[in-house]
Amino acid sequence: AGAETVKRAVELDVASRFQESLVCYQEGIDLLLQVVKATKDEAKKHRYRQKISEYMTRAEDIKKHIEKEKQDGKYHKQIRIEENATGFSYEKLFQEYLTEIVSEVWVEDPYIRHVHQASRCLLYNFLRFCEMLVKGPCKVKTIHLLTSYDESSGRSQQISGLEEIQQSLRNYGVTLNIEFSSSIHDREIRFNNGWMIKIGRGLDYFKKPESRFSIGYCDFDLRPCHETTVDVFHTKHTKKM
């Protein structure tokens, strides 16, 4: 497993996908260290240690490169989600940026509302996103939501749904600030550690499940996606709403 993970790290490294490569290097090194502990053959131990040392050196170089790009405001990673692709839950997209210092989150999405279609209530998508934040490892205390009013008959459901989410978050020590704008059209999510994620479809990139009892209804990693593009940036200062 360690060898496969490091092999993937090298592939990502060659493809200049440095952030993903760094994660794989770190995971692979941890796995190889466990192998070293369990190996009694001294010659094998020596070879493993040499390789681990090489991977650690490369991981440190990548870390410095990423940090420089962040400082220069040049960091940009793009993820292409293909039509019907799976494995793109909110956890998979956001988890690596939710470091322990994240305490404040900004969400701008004009369509956080109830949709009158079975199993396609965008309020639930936002709720799932909030659940991910509550689970950590970040220590989120404040979430700012900027969205638009539902101009159809669903406005009362939209407001009551958001208020229920607001109250539920309060039980976990998290404040949800809600603002409405009639001119908002961009979709982006920002964390106060400087990471900013723009998704072409916002939080609504999952397809409607076939039924309430089909695989993917509960687990978003198994839910097919609409085609969309995710752009990840790092900025020195996250703007306020």
Automatic annotation (TrEMBL):
It holds the Pfam family MIT_C. SUPFAM superfamilies: MIT domain. CDD domains: MIT_1, MIT_C. Residues 1-71 form the MIT domain. Transmembrane segments: none annotated. This is MITD1 protein.
